[in-house]
């Protein structure tokens, strides 16, 4: 007897449709009705075989042992030829007489069917312990990894919850007892196991396709932000204008470091989940991820250093700014004097130039 998992056709979902899969169930193969039919066929074959043997009374070879000799006058006088012909017309063995009207035989047949029913019920009771796997299958069928990730990106705990749940389901299914003797029957659940296992595995495969890609993209974006910020902060400004831009950028990074820290933890958590569940990550992506922690630590150290040196740099660039302002003032005075001299010269020339009457 084989235990199998069944399901009715389900509606395939798309971006504009919702999936409404039917519930999975356990079925026996062959079924109880199949057993009863097979048993009836066996009994029928037995009865047909039993009735296929001819009556020894009607066997011509044995007639000398059944009928009195023709010389027996008493037999000849009492012989009723018509009755003998009628008796020959009656089929023998008579299956109805031998089997249909035999109470002991009918009782034995009834007991056989009753025992088969009890044994099938025992198998059905045994199969109830596998209902939890049908629940697992139904839950897995409702998880559309590709469709869900198209709508929105999962957070790390959602990734972990889905992976953890369906990994446990796969491990539970792997522990199934594939063969067991239950009363008269040998129960084989190999087909049931093969039917159930692909559903949680499909979910795990879907997550394994997406999680490393998402983690790599977020890691790449975060690394670019970190390296760009580190380059700008590592470069000491040479002019007052550059120092002002430096202070503005430093203030912005000090405000954004918390969000960068959060993104850093998200990326590291994603890679941790991927490693824990033995997902395939390319060597290049793994090497790139391994540069994230030192790069981020360097950025934080740079921000702390720049914050610590900010007041000192402000004082230094303030003096430079004062010098610059003094230089600008001197240059303005020089320009002013040149302009005044030019104006005076032009006025002098205009006075000396003779005017026409």
TrEMBL record:
GO MF annotations, alphabetized: dynein intermediate chain binding; dynein light intermediate chain binding
Region Disordered: start-end pairs: 1-26
InterPro entries per record: DHC (IPR026983)
Bias-annotated ranges (Low complexity): 9-26
Gene Ontology biological-process entries: microtubule-based movement
Residues forming coiled coils: none
Cellular component GO terms, alphabetical: dynein complex
PANTHER family attached to this UniProt entry: DYNEIN HEAVY CHAIN, DYNEIN HEAVY CHAIN, CYTOPLASMIC
This protein's name: Uncharacterized protein
The species this protein was found in: Desmophyllum pertusum
């Amino acid at each position: 007897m084989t235990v199998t998992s069944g399901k009715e056709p389900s509606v395939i979902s798309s971006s504009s449709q919702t999936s409404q899969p039917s519930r999975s169930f356990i079925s026996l193969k062959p079924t109880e009705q199949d057993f009863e039919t097979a048993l009836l066929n066996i009994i029928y074959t037995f009865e047909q075989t039993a009735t296929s043997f001819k009556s020894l009374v009607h066997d011509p070879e044995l007639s000398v042992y059944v009928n009195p000799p023709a010389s027996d006058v008493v037999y000849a006088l009492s012989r009723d030829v018509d009755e003998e012909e009628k008796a020959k017309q009656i089929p023998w063995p008579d299956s109805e007489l031998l089997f249909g009207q035999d109470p002991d035989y009918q009782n034995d047949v009834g007991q056989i069917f009753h025992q088969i029913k009890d044994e099938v019920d025992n198998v059905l009771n045994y199969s109830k312990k596998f209902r939890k796997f049908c629940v697992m299958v139904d839950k897995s069928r409702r998880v559309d990894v590709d469709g869900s990730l198209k709508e929105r990106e999962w957070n790390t705990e959602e990734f972990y919850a889905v992976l953890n749940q369906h990994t446990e389901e796969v491990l539970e299914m792997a522990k199934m007892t594939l063969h067991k003797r239950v009363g008269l029957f040998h129960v084989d659940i190999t087909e049931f196991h093969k039917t159930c296992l692909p559903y949680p595995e499909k979910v795990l495969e879907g997550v394994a396709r997406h999680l490393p890609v998402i983690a790599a993209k977020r890691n790449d974006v975060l690394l670019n932000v970190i390296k760009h910020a580190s380059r700008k902060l590592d470069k000491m400004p040479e002019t007052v204008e550059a120092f002002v831009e430096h202070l503005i950028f430093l203030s912005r990074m000090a405000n954004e470091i918390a969000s960068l820290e959060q993104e850093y933890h998200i990326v590291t958590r994603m890679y941790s989940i991927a490693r824990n569940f033995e997902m395939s990550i390319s060597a290049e992506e793994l090497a790139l991820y391994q540069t994230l922690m030192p790069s981020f630590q360097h950025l934080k150290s740079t921000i702390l250093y720049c914050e610590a040196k900010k007041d000192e740099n402000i004082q230094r660039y303030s003096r430079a700014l004062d010098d610059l302002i003094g230089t600008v003032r001197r240059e303005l005075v020089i320009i002013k004097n040149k302009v005044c001299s030019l104006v005076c010269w032009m006025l002098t020339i205009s006075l000396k130039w003779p005017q026409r009457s």
